[in-house]
Write a structure and sequence with these properties.
The complex is a heterodimer of chains A (about 500) and B (about 375). With about 500 residues, chain A is mainly alpha-helical. In chain A, about 70% of the residues lie in helices and about 0% in strands. Chain A has two domains: about 170 residues, no CATH class; about 180 residues, no CATH class. In chain A, α2 crosses α7. Chain B has two domains: about 30 residues; about 300 residues, SGNH hydrolase (Rossmann fold), CATH 3.40.50. Chain B is about 45% helix and about 5% strand. Chain B contains 15 helices and five strands. Chain B has a five-stranded parallel β-sheet, with helices on both faces. Classes of the chains: A mainly alpha (about 500), B mainly alpha (about 375). At the A-B interface, α10, α13, α14, α15 and α20 of A face α1 and α10 of B.
Chain lengths: ~500, ~375
């Protein structure tokens, strides 16, 4: 059940109506039932695995504060969750070897070998389970006593596909006191869903479709201006895809009266790398900060108290970002991406050693603009290995920065094939050469406009005159309707992480 | 990673006196919106939108097969309007599209019988027997032709061939709507001139959008008014049998290895034949001529003959007519772009052959193929 379908809308409507009609003591049971239905719509096996994972963590949570064995229980829990992640998510790394080993032992595995499907949202759930065990163990919260409530925390369907990664303490307390319905809250949640749909369908799907799959695999076939515009398109597609998803699920969850963490806060307007990580995938960054970066920094400072020591400057950010890279996928490309992000943070900290440190907002406006441009440029380049393998990424950078590749006219191998086909006139070829720029600009400008408005406040539209809101709504409905005739867009990108 | 706290989202800033949506204002907005769409719809029905673009589409997936269907659909509409009906519709895949010139078939038939037939080629590249069977029903219900000629080849009966394209095509809203599965999108496409003017541009965001659009225009311009698209390329060395070890040939060998007629695919042939029960339409299953070396992919001439016999039996059992392509048909050496298709030199030969056969059916068996009325709209 994809969340941009009418089927999901109908399912949410039924789930919300049931939830609102039931007394408080049955609400969590109803929510768990809805979560089970949602997960089964993908696969019943997913429900079994995820319920098992939730049950084990629920039991471990009860024993993690044990004076004698608490520490062992904690580490057993952490290892178990990580093993689940390794077993399912990274199966493509060990299954071929396992299959060949079994074949050598005479065990047949069928034509396609052994197949393991990654349970829905496993990467997100494991992080939540680990943080729960750590928080209970270190006394930041009490272990949850009600299994149903805990299972809702683990399997809550609006956040199961791709987060946000909620902390147990905050989320469980919200389950106890869901916000009451009001016209204002309904409109607010409706706005969130609508903004999410715009980000996903109008911006992300369109931008994704504009980038040829070959561009990131064989970049040498394309001229640099096209590589530049497609990298920009990919960056905004990725952002709008994930931000769109988050906005939709926040709106959906809001209908139940359960607030979810906002995962994005116009990240491409960040004026420093650390600000970027406070605005991009906020729930993951804060998880990494609280459970890896801070503990690691504290441990290192016990060994080397000097804040400006190279060890303290380099190790925590680099290691944290490498873990972030590995969480996104077990590959050299994601490691390279994480390494680059860590390096940016280290360089920023080193630059801060010479002179007083200012918050970005305290800098003069011109420095804010330059800083934002530099940060955006670096982040943009780092998306290349995030999207493709290490070797194609290097080729992409090489072609992007090759002066000869910026020649005008920009016909290259991409257009030679078209010209040779003899189907197109010279005018048509010229149009083909410039069309991608129009195409990307047509979506990028409104996407930037939306970001600019949301920079002023997430619900800034609600302050506009009502007639303008109505016109805007009608326009959005029309655009969504027209786009529904295009060939279907890809599923949410972060759903695969 | 920063030590500072995350920058929190700005607090939701709702005005002190929140403006409330008033129902009359909302209704007024809806009314303006509807009026705007009605004006645009009227303008497109009156042809004013043709100033901007004359392209039209039914929005079928996938690209570009959906657009190939558009070329033939709107082409047939124009043909019927110009000729006040259609007698014979040729259906099938690309082998029919480039393999039969309706004008030559009609001319041959006219020379022998003195009767002028109105023939349209509705062969569409990449659409095999599965979608053929579905849209043929739509064509028969809409245009009531006297004869459907279904040009077929062994590929039509491969179990797993082209399944993604077929599935996507058949899930298109308009196709579903026309097949009796009511849906809003299909209904709107069918009814709205405005939407049909928008749909050629529906994939404007795709990286291959403009390339595809130009290619479709090019295909449209080289398709004759009777739906025939001449293929210019000529294959050489076709007389040499395909080499199973050649990388270029391995896919074809793998595809036809252990060739058997898939019963499900055969049922689609029967559903085409069942259209004989709708009105006065007859169905002729015509075997499109393959190059003799093509049989090597299937395992030799004997396998091919088994296939031919099985199809012939199925057609005859359903009361249809089967027209094999072997015997005295002589496609010239330069008449093919590959082992399956015919080109602009081969198509006239086969078209004459088919026209002669149709004439024989009229002169010897007394079958008439002229439709009395105009195609229905």
């Amino acid at each position: 059940m994809e969340i941009t379908t009418f089927l999901f809308a109908g399912f949410v409507l039924l789930a919300v109506l049931g939830f609102r009609c039931l007394p408080q003591r049955f609400k969590n049971l109803w929510l768990l039932f809805a979560c089970a239905v949602f997960i089964i719509s993908w696969s019943w096996q997913f429900l079994v695995i995820l319920l098992l994972l939730a049950t084990i963590n629920y039991i471990l949570g009860k024993h993690v504060t044990d004076v004698r064995h608490g520490k062992w229980v904690l580490w057993a829990g952490v290892v178990l969750n990580l093993l689940a992640l390794l077993l399912f998510k990274y199966s493509n790394f060990y299954l071929p070897e396992l299959t060949s080993l079994l074949a050598k032992l005479g065990v047949r595995t069928g034509a396609g070998g052994i197949q393991i499907l990654v349970p829905l949202g496993l990467s997100f759930i494991t992080l939540q389970m680990i943080s729960y065990l750590l928080d209970v163990h270190y006394g930041r919260m009490e272990a949850e006593t009600g299994f149903v409530k805990f299972a809702v925390y683990a399997l809550y369907f609006p956040k199961i596909l791709a987060g946000p990664i909620e902390r147990a303490k905050t989320f469980l307390s919200r389950l106890d006191t869901p916000q009451e319905w009001s016209v204002e809250s309904i409109l607010q949640n409706f706005t969130l869903v609508l903004v999410g749909l715009i980000r996903k369908i109008v911006f992300a799907d369109a931008l994704t479709a504009m980038v040829p799959a070959q561009a990131f695999q064989h970049p040498s076939q394309y001229p640099a201006p096209l590589l530049a515009i497609w990298l920009l398109a990919y960056a905004f597609a990725l952002y709008n895809d994930f931000a769109g998803y988050t906005s939709i699920v926040r709106g959906v969850s809001g209908f139940f009266g359960i607030e979810l963490t906002s995962n994005f806060n116009v990240p491409y307007f960040s004026r420093s790398f650390s600000e970027f990580w406070n605005r991009w995938h906020i729930s993951l960054s804060s998880w990494l900060r609280d459970y890896i970066y801070y503990p690691l920094s504290r441990r290192l400072r016990k060994t080397v108290p000097n804040h400006n020591n190279a060890l303290n400057l380099i190790v925590p950010p680099v290691l944290t970002m490498l873990v972030s890279g590995l969480w996104h996928g077990l590959g050299w490309n994601t490691l390279l991406w994480g390494g680059l992000q860590g390096t940016f943070l280290v360089l920023e900290r080193i630059a801060g050693l010479w002179g007083p440190r200012y918050a970005p907002a305290e800098l003069p406006r011109w420095r804010q603009v330059i800083s934002a441009a530099v940060v955006f440029f670096c982040i943009l380049l780092a998306w290349v290995p995030f999207h493709t393998g290490v070797i194609p990424a290097i080729h992409y950078w090489q072609n992007l920065f090759s002066i000869t590749n910026w020649q005008i006219p920009i016909y290259k191998a991409y257009f030679i094939q078209e010209a040779q086909s003899g189907h197109f006139s010279q005018a048509a070829l010229r149009m083909l050469a410039i069309f991608p720029f129009f195409q990307v600009a047509l979506v990028l400008l409104p996407a930037l406009g939306l970001d600019l408005f949301q920079y002023k406040g997430e619900f800034t539209f609600r302050k506009w005159p009502v007639w303008l809101q109505v016109v805007l709504l009608a326009l959005v409905v029309l655009i969504l309707f027209l786009l529904s005739f295009a060939e279907k867009g890809a599923p949410f990108i972060y759903q695969s992480f | 990673m920063s030590n500072r706290n995350p920058v929190h989202l700005k607090e939701i800033a709702i005005p002190h006196k929140p403006r409330k949506l008033s129902i009359p204002l909302l209704l007024l907005g809806v009314a303006f919106f509807v009026a705007f769409l009605v004006i645009l719809e009227a303008a497109s029905r009156k042809g004013f939108l043709n100033i901007l673009s004359t392209r039209e589409s039914l929005g079928n997936y996938p690209t570009p097969m959906g657009q190939y269907f558009d070329i033939k659909w709107y082409g047939l509409q124009e043909y019927v309007a110009r000729n006040e009906g259609v007698d014979v519709i040729l259906i099938g895949s690309s082998v029919v599209n480039t393999g039969i010139d309706p004008d030559i078939v009609a001319e041959t038939y006219f020379k022998i019988t003195g009767i002028r037939l109105r023939i349209y080629n509705f062969g569409i590249e990449s659409l095999d027997i599965v979608p053929n069977s579905v849209y043929t029903k739509i064509l028969v219900q809409k245009y009531h032709p006297s004869l459907i000629v279904f040009g077929t080849i062994p590929r039509d009966y491969l179990a797993d061939d082209n399944t993604d394209v077929n599935q996507q095509f058949l899930s298109s809203p308009w196709i579903k709507y026309e097949s009796g599965q009511w849906n809003l999108a299909g209904f709107l496409i069918d009814q709205s001139a405005l939407l049909s003017h928008y749909l050629p541009y529906r994939n404007w965001m795709r990286s291959d959008f403009l390339d595809t659009l130009y290619r479709i225009d090019h295909r449209f311009s080289r398709t004759s008014s009777s739906g025939y698209e001449a293929e210019a390329s000529v294959a050489t060395n076709l007389d040499q049998p395909p080499d199973p070890n050649s990388p270029d040939e391995q896919a074809a060998f793998a595809k036809y290895h252990n060739f058997k007629i898939d019963p499900t695919r055969l049922s689609y042939l029967l559903s085409i034949l069942n259209l004989q029960n709708v009105g006065n339409t007859r169905v002729l299953v015509a075997e499109m001529p393959l190059h003799p070396t093509f049989y090597d992919y299937m395992g030799g001439t004997l396998v091919y003959q088994d296939y031919q016999n099985e199809i012939a039996s199925a057609v005859k059992a359903s009361g249809g007519m089967f027209f094999p392509s072997n015997g005295d048909l002589q496609i010239p050496a330069n008449g093919r772009p590959d082992r399956e298709h015919l080109n602009q030199f081969g198509a006239p030969v086969y078209s004459t052959y088919l026209g002669t056969y149709l004439a024989t059916l009229t002169t010897h068996d007394g079958l008439q193929f002229t439709s009395s009325g105009q195609g229905g709209h």
